[in-house]
Amino acid sequence: MIAISAGSFQIDQIELNVKEAALRLGVPGEQASQWIAEYAPLVEKEIQPKYCFTKTLVRILPTGKIDLGYTRLESKDLYKNLSGCIQVYTLAVTLGLQIDRTIARLAVSSPGKAFAVDALASAYAESAADALSKIFREELSDDATLCPRFSPGYGDVPLTIQTTVLEALEATKHTGITLGTNLLMTPRKSITAFQGVRKL
After folding, report:
1. What's 69's DSSP letter?
2. What's 195's domain CATH number?
3. Of 57, 200, 199, 83, whose CA–CA distance to 150 is shortest?
4. Which of 35, 41, 44, 45 is deepest in the core (most CB within 10 A)?
5. Which of the 8 DSSP states describes residue 150?
6. Of 182, 172, 154, which Cα lies nearest the Cα of 94?
7. Eight-class DSSP state of 37
8. Helix, strand, coil shares of the chain as percentages rounded to 5?
9. Domains held by the chain: number
10. How remote is the C-alpha of 76 from its chain's centroid?
11. Which range of residues forms the domain containing residue 119?
């Protein structure tokens, strides 16, 4: 058994990454600022951020496989990301179903607004993951550092690992995240990731 921590964020604990939001909106800076000012309050009203995570020892095996404590997988990209790490956080974050429903409703009545809200919600999901990483950093000793997050589906880490990750985290119980047969998560604005702890 692995220890699992879970909780939720208040909106004032999540600081929107404006650069990330502008990138997802895909519009020039001034217009992006206008859209953020106009639609961010709506997104903040509709999201219910929850998270869960576990922290385990990580071992790089002679075979090249990575032992995360609850499963083993083979990935050159994750191997590189976790090189030198002694522990790894496995995390799941979601904004909840309400924002999905709001985007679906807007897609019918106002597609342009739906696009903006969808893009901003994606940015808020990343910012929620950043807020969780902040919690991890506060737990670190002075001689350790936190590596960048690495999510299933990036590089050569297969999406199929999502099943194992979500089961290990009991993510449905703690956050409401479920996995479809297409390996995509519901709620849509959800993130899973690995984040290593490396000694300095």
Report:
1. S
2. 3.40.109.40
3. 83
4. 35
5. B
6. 172
7. H
8. 45, 25, 30
9. 1
10. 21
11. 5-199
